[in-house]
Prior knowledge:
Radius of gyration: 31 Å
Helix content: under 10%
Number of helices: 1
Oligomer: single chain
Amino acid sequence: MNPHIMKKIYLITLLSVLIYSCSSDDSAPSIETVTQLPTIESISTTSATAGDIITITGENFDPNETYVVKFNEVQGTVTEVTLTSLKAQVPENATSGDITLTVNGNTTVVGALEISTTEVFVFHSDAKKLAKIDIVTANLTYIGENIEYGVNTRGAVIHSKNNEYIGFENEFTQPHLVRINLENGSSTNVNIPSSFLTVGKDFRDMVIDENDNIYIFHSSAKKLAKIDIATGNLTYIGENIEYGLNTRGAFIHKQNNEYIGFENDFTQPYLVRINLETGNVTNVTIPISFLTAGIDFSDITVDENDNIYIFHDSAKKLAKIDIATGNLTYLGENIEYGQNSLGAVIHSQKNEYVGFEDNFGDPYLTRVNLDNGATTNVTIPTSFLTVGKDFDDIVIKQ
C-alpha cells in the first residue's frame, strides 16, 4: 500500500480515538476546583483571653466554605465568615502561639496571639471556698475548702509573689489576715497583734501596690497602716486622718504614690488621698452638680494606667473620676448594679469594669464596657448555689 495512504489512515484513526475519548463521560478528564487560601491582611489583636472574638481580615474568603481556626493547635469556633473577613472565638484551653487557618486541607499561619492569664476570684462564704470565676459563663472553679473567712471582710488582694488571695477579717474580736494559696487552697490566718488594738479593732479597705506592699486603714486609730503579712505587725503612716465609716473601697495610685479611698459620707461624697511617704491627706469633694440624682456610690477601682472609676448608684451610671477636681465623666446609663455590691475590678484585656452583685437573691457579675458603657449581666448558675448565695470580695489577677 502506498505509504502516503497508510499515513492518512493512521491520522484518521488517531483522530477518531481522540474524538471518542473526549465525548465519553466515563473517560473524560476531571477538572478539580481547589479553594484558594484567602490573602491575609491583618488580625484584630495580638493579645486576648479565652472567650474573646478575634477578626482575621483579608481577601477571597468564601462564606460557603468550612474554615478551621486553631490557636496554638487548639481549635476555636468560627462565628462569622464574609468575603473580606473571618471571626473566631478563642477556646477556653488556648495557649499563646500561632493562629492557623485551614480550608480544604490547605493551612497557613495568619499571625500570633498572646493568651492572657487574667483570672477573677471571689470568696463563696456559704461554701467556705475560694472560687475562680469565668466571667463569660459565671461558672465557678473552687480552690480549697472549709476556709474560715468570716462575714465582716474588708476587701481582698492578690499577692503575686506568694501567689495568694489575701483577705482581711475584722471579726469584731480578733482582726486577722486570711491567706489562701491559689494553687492548692491551703489557708493561713495571721492575727493583728493585740498591741496595735488598744485604741480599737475597726479597719477599712485593704489594698496592695505593684511591689506587693499591703496597706489598710485603721479606723479606730485614724491612721493608714502597712501590714507585714507574716507577722500582722502594722507600720503607721500619718495620723488623725478623717476617713469615715461609710467607705466603698480604696486603691493605690501609682503615679502619685497615694492610697485613695472614697468616703460616701451620707451628705457630701469625697475622695481621701493619703501620701504613702508622708501621710499627708488631701480631700477632694465631688462637685454638687453631679449629685442632683443622689449621693450614693459603690465600688471605686483603678486600671493599670491610674484611671479611676466608681459606680454612681443614684444616677445608675459608671463614672471616671478626676482625682484633682472630683469631676465625673459618665459611661453608659440605666445600669442595674444593685445595692449590695462586693467590690469591682478592671479587666484590662476586655476593657471592662467588672462588679459582683450579691443581690440577696441571684448573684451575678455586671460587666461594663469602658469605651461605650454597654452592660452585660452574667448570673452565677444555680448549680453552684445549692449551699447558699453569700459571697465576699471579688479580686483580679492579671
